[in-house]
Amino acid sequence: MQPHQLNPTIEPQFDAVTDYILNHLGSTVPLVEKIGHYIVAGGGKRLRPLLVLLSANACGYRGEQHIPLAAVIEFIHTATLLHDDVVDNSELRRGNATANAKWGNAPSVLVGDFLYSRAFQIMVEINRMEIMQVISNATTVIAEGEVLQLLNQRNPDTSEESYMQVILGKTAMLFEAATEVGAILADASAEEREALRLYGRHLGIAFQLVDDLMDYLSDSATMGKNVGDDLAEGKATLPLIHAMRVGSETERKLIRGAIREGGLDDLQPVLDIVQRTGSIDYTRQQAEAEVSRAITALEALPASSFRETLTTLAQMATRRTS
Fold it and tell me: Which domains does the chain have, with CATH numbers?
């Protein structure tokens, strides 16, 4: 079951967001539309726009502006994907060739810029300054998170604290913005707004922890990306950081070398070490702790089917395989 199918009330709203997105990809430049439609149609659960819808509904919203607002969040997310794939030289996403693999880096970056700009055009139409403040701040933090990740690339001395700072910026920040702006749109109380902000933050951290975990568990058919991509790019994610901390000197040296060099020459030995040192379980435990914090935050909201769906979404975060 797809996440948006968990709540019958949300399904038609989710479909309206999809229609809105497709109707706002228009451009006088054909390549912009072609790449935009390609990446939007490429799949994905559209979890972030769903969070906008659920958060607004959980706070009693009864208007229509949550539809374009959800599209704003998805446009920003899609723009970051286009840029990330260029930075990471990725060739596969969601089981399909990346836009940069099909059309090249320059068009991918520029269409990402177009989607960012379109998102801000829509925000101006929504005309809520508080929402613009949250989203503009989020996009700044996301960019900083991406730069920090770049600085940490091929650095085996990356600490767990620095790693968490990266995923807070590059992933959790947009989750946090999605839930918070839903509350703002609904004129929620300060307590409800803060509850949803924290929910989004902790859910986003859990989501990325599981994503990084799957790089050492899954296969490309399941994940929609190549196994070992993070190692190939020299990214010291939590499974590797933990394995270096608790492993033997020999194991530590092997992982450090693999991070420094990048590539997949040592993929199988690294996979074995990550399993042997309990780093898979450790990373999953950290993700489960974040999910628990997210669900606890929801206690400030009134009981509703939307709050229940938010709870279920959080519980699904650590069970996902793609």
Answer: 9-317 (1.10.600.10)
